[in-house]
Amino acid sequence: MFNGTRIFVSGATGSWGTTLITMLLEKYNVEEIICFSRGELQQVLMKRKFNSSKLKFVIGDIRDYEAVLAATKNIDYIFHLAALKHVPVCEENVQETIKTNINGTTNIVNAAIANRVKKVIDVSSDKAVEPINLYGMTKAVGEKIIVQANDLTDYTRFVCIRGGNVMGSSGSVIPFFKS
After folding, report:
1. Residue of 72, 77, 65 lying closest to 36 (CA atoms)
2. Residue 53: CATH number of its domain
């Protein structure tokens, strides 16, 4: 379903984004992938790593609706991966976590509807199930925002997937447990 399409990936330079983009480039003949993230250095490193004309790098923050709206113009699919996800960081930066994980998700939904994107795939977390910390709570709210968005449009479809502690992902708890 991704052949010949334009795909937007929020949080593209993270470990999940890098893996997703690798898979999309290897398995599908995509027209273009918009790699959207705040990290200038990470984008430069990713651009060098992939060296692909199918990747377009856009510096932006999902907390900025106008930036998300502009970057998702003429997009077929959105993968929403951007989030503040380190539990202690989230606990110490409550407002920033809410702005990114809740308001940012709302911006993705509104931009997708405005730009008539076919489908939004939101990557949530197992921490959203009976959350015991702010990170889990914001991901649970994000899931509700995504699922409810299906009632706002007859065109764009919204789905959530949940990941867990993934070995090798940035911020994985496994290296911490090992040490």
Report:
1. 72
2. 3.40.50.720
